[in-house]
Amino acid sequence: MILIIDNYLKNGRVNQIKCAVQKYTNEPIKIINFKQVKQIDFCEVSCLILSGSTCNLSNKKDEKKYSDEIESVKRCPVPILGICFGHHILGKAYDSEILRGKRIKKLEKVKIVTSDDLLGSWDIYHEITVEESHSDYVKELPREFTLLASSESCEIEAMKHDTKPTYSTQFHPERTPDGHRVIGNFIRNVVNAHPHSSL
To answer: Which of 83, 98, 104, 164 lies in the 20 to 30 Å Cα band around 52?
Structure first.
């Protein structure tokens, strides 16, 4: 089962993620609220996808709401894809500071800087078109992470853990065709190849 963590407080857009994932798998997909993370039985889960949010981890009150999720992702035994706010969750979990910047909401050209399973559909230095919608950003690459992609508006557009199948994107891959290919790569190249996967 693919598990999507809904990080929105209300009226979230996680169905966009679900629809994009469904293009690449017949595996059941379940959406749960972020407040339920302690109830996850990882024996039944092939991967986690962490959604965006209207909250900001640069805000200490918001950070406190997501403390269980921040702690849970460090112990997660299955592949993870963090999207936008989910990218910040992973940054915070691995000791990077999350800062507030100017609001960015636009299509963005993102440059691939490292070829790997998530972005392997393109050559290094190729630019993909994705949608940005955020004000927070990950200040610096966490230790044990590799930078995968960058843009003019955000240095850390995508990253991966060096030893765990843990990936994240600042952009929203569920909202553009290039982004859908990123999700497809995650399902095919990361989730399907993982020994815990039931796909």
So the answer is: 164
- Tell me the mean pLDDT in the region 9-25: 91
Known active-site residue 84:
yes
- Continuous segment of H or E residues that includes residue 8: none
Residue 4 has which token pair?
A: 């999507």
In CATH, what class is 2-191? alpha beta
Which two tokens mark 194?
């993982």
Catalytic residue among 47, 55, 76, 84: 84
All residues at 6 or more sequence positions from 169 whose CB lies less than 8 Å from its CB, including other chains:
81, 82, 83, 84, 87, 130, 149, 157, 158, 182
Name the one residue in this structure whose structure tokens are 């302690």: 38
Residue 179 class from Cβ within 10 Å (0-12 exposed, 13-18 middle, 19+ buried)?
Answer: buried
Specify whether 174 is catalytic: yes
Q: Which two tokens stand for residue 9?
A: 């407080």
Give me the DSSP letters along 136-191: EEESSPPTTEEEEEE-SS-S-SEEEESSSSEEEESSBGGGSHHHHHHHHHIIIIII
Domains of the chain: which residue ranges?
2-191
List phi, psi (to 5°) of 29.
-120, 130
Per residue in 59-105, pLDDT tens? 999 999 999 999 999 999 999 999 999 999 999 999 999 999 989 99
Predicted TM-score (pTM) of the model is 0.95
